[in-house]
Design a protein that fits this description.
By secondary structure, the chain is mostly helical. The chain has helices at residues 5-27, 37-49, 54-61, 65-77, 100-121, 126-142, and strands at residues 52-53, 81-86, 90-98. It has one domain: Arc Repressor Mutant, subunit A (Orthogonal Bundle), CATH 1.10.10.
């Protein structure tokens, strides 16, 4: 089994995002979907790191500026993110930050998705859930996030 670990991790890398995306959209089907998964990722990262340059955000999300900009435009248009000039350090510098409405919607969406994940994990006995939690924590440490 240990000799297959890199292959298992590769499969996990390929399949997990797709599976989580499917779960995410299933969890939102009862609500009017207000956030796409990409928008959710952006809001979540902005909530964690606070006001920042777009280049810092794209680095944190591991996406290109070209891929990030259209999503940011939509989030600004929805009033979930604001762009502003850094008047204190350099007025030429444009920063982005999550708005209070963005924080509210992020919180609601995250809570809904967490409930879906909890419900999905209920099919496992407690012992297996503990093993999953330990494995995930080990992976987080191994890949430093």
């Amino acid at each position: 089994m240990m000799d297959k670990l890199p292959e298992y991790l590769f499969d996990l890398y390929i399949q997990l995002p797709r599976r989580f995306k499917k779960l995410f959209y299933a969890s939102m089907q009862d609500q009017e979907l207000q956030l796409g998964l990409s928008e959710l990722k952006i809001l979540n990262e902005l909530d964690k790191i606070g006001p920042c340059k777009m280049s810092d955000l794209s680095d944190a999300l591991v996406v290109t500026m070209g891929g990030l900009t259209p999503h940011m435009d939509k989030l600004v248009e929805k009033g979930l993110v604001r762009r502003f000039r850094d008047e204190e350090r350099d007025r030429r510098l444009v920063l982005v930050e999550i708005t209070d409405e963005g924080k509210r919607l992020l919180k609601e969406t995250k809570e809904q998705f967490l409930c879906t994940l909890e419900h999905h994990l209920e099919r496992f006995p407690n012992k297996e859930r503990e093993e999953i939690a330990k494995a995930v924590e080990t992976l987080r440490k191994a890949f430093e996030f």
